[in-house]
Amino acid sequence: MTPPRLSLSLTDTREKLLSLRGVLFDLDGVLTPTVDVHMRAWSLLFNAFLTENGVTEPYTDSDYFEFVDGKPRYDGVRSLLASRGLTLPDGDPSDDPSALTICGLGNRKNAAFNETLAEDGVTPYPGSIDFLNFVVDAGLDVAVVTSSRNGEMVLAAAELRDRFEVVVDGMVAAKEKLAGKPAPTTYEYAAQLLGYSAAECVVIEDAQSGVQAGRAGNFGLVLGVDRGVGADVLMNDGADAVVQDLSELVPAPSSAAPTAATGAAE
Predict the structure, then answer these.
(1) Which of 106, 120, 202, 212 could form a disulfide with 73 if both were Cys (CB 3.0 to 4.6 A apart)?
(2) Is 206 a residue of the active site?
(3) Nearest to residue 69, comparing CAs of 91, 43, 44, 50?
(4) Does the pLDDT of residue 160 top 90, yes or no?
(5) What is the DSSP string of 138-174?
(6) Closest CA to 34 of 122, 147, 129, 158
């Protein structure tokens, strides 16, 4: 039996982080609490659909973490339906939200998400902003990598768009024909745009599929943020360390901010 992975200490995690060159942030659940909006939208969609199709097993938050979280929208629909023994034709991304296709259901969920975001807005996690400031001040380059096709909109709503020169979201992935998480391709593409190898970058993720992507791509560091899926789960999926909040890695204000290494990562 394979022993459980052991998490790096906060000190070792910070030191490893600062030996790297690029920081690749997931968006929902890492920078912004929009995961809550996504979860509500998915729950409304799937519980109604499952009931209409005679499925007695309800959709739960555990289903979100296991089948949907971090994946491209249509892949999430396909995975959840498969877990209940249901199939639908793929359809086309242009499908109306009323269409009984994978894309139609995904678009129905997206409409609910956009409506909620427009009404309520979104405020970034304060600890994530402290961490972002810390790594930028230390000389690291930063990018956002998200499966969401709403990445640009969420960043704008959170007033974060100007903090990131590189954003690889679901729209970019579709245009460049990049495989979604848990494949490492979108993270590899973001690292390439920053001018670095995977070994020179850290992947920061709250989703199982995202942590799996970081591990599959052999990134220099895979940092999990536990927003509900569980630290042990993220560790087992390949995280090197897991924190509850990214502020845990920010030194006390009296500490001098270290600088990033000028050479390649170890």
Answers:
(1) 106
(2) no
(3) 43
(4) yes
(5) TT-EEEEE-S-TTHHHHHHHTT-GGG-SEEE-HHHHH
(6) 122
Same domain for 135 and 61: no
Catalytic residue among 12, 26, 90, 206: 26
Which residues, 6+ apart, have CB-to-CB distance to 156 below 8 Å? none
pLDDT at 156 over 50: yes
Residue 262 lies in a domain: no
Residues 171 and 44 in one domain: no
189, 176 contact by CB (below 8 A): yes
pLDDT, mean over the chain: 91
Q: What is the Cα 237 distance to its own chain's centre?
A: 14
If we measure between CA atoms, which residue out of 50, 44, 23 comes closest to residue 201?
Answer: 23
Q: Per the residue annotation, which of 28, 75, 95, 169 is the catalytic one?
A: 28
- Helices 185-194 and 208-216: crossing angle, nearest 10°? 60
User: Which residues touch 258 (CB under 8 Å, ≥6 apart)?
Assistant: 18, 138
26 is catalytic: yes
Range of the domain at 91: 35-120
Q: Is residue 265 part of a domain?
A: no
Q: What is the pTM of this model?
A: 0.77
Which two tokens mark 140? 């690291």
**27 & 68 share domain:** no
